[in-house]
């Protein structure tokens, strides 16, 4: 089979556990791209953060951000696709968070909105000081998020709930699923992420493939988490990282090494280089 599009998850896949993009991986991606293979990033991260890493790759990579809610080329302002959560549904999510007293964030394409100050160790907070201004993620704190929805007409792409109380986390997740308006998936064990119904990485990869005229059989998708399952199952070749949990590896056509062992580079070297 001739593959034409490769969609790569970022955290736990493209990046090692130190959030680094290794030289071996960068070189493998560059050489694969030079052979005419389109490389795309497919991540739960917001667009601004994904674009920073796409720039490190040194290629023109389309970006699927916010688990499929936002698709855009990294080098221009043209938005390929976006799906925003309306104010009514944002309010429903807010009511469930208040019910269980859980920590949460709303994401736009470049901003994270929180009702409380961002904690030390929060990924974007730690990254921002070392980034140029146009690559920094905006961190916005407001105690009245409901009012901000109305006042600023915020285009919310994704909602995130985080908690170490797994019982409360699962109860809130079940409440949200019962509403029937949302897609809910986890990227880590202590969180879940919410998008509009029908919005997944898999649906976004399908839309991107259609845009470029690629068949499903010509697509490779690589990931390690629950939110990657939809694209792994969609792809002609679904690849799980060695560090992926069993339920993800069980759905994959191929398993490569872990993200700390340059699993993406190993895959590209085996199939293309």
UniProtKB/TrEMBL annotation:
EC number of this enzyme: 3.1.3.74
Gene Ontology CC terms, in alphabetical order: cytosol
Keywords tagged on the record: Hydrolase
GO function terms (MF aspect): magnesium ion binding; pyridoxal phosphatase activity
InterPro entries on file: Cof, HAD-like_sf, HAD-SF_hydro_IIB, HAD_sf
Pfam families: Hydrolase_3
Enzyme class: hydrolase
Record carries keyword Transmembrane helix: no
Keyword Hydrolase (UniProt): yes
Superkingdom, taxonomy of origin: Bacteria
Name of protein: Pyridoxal phosphate phosphatase YbhA
Taxonomic placement: Bacteria, Bacillati, Bacillota, Clostridia, Eubacteriales
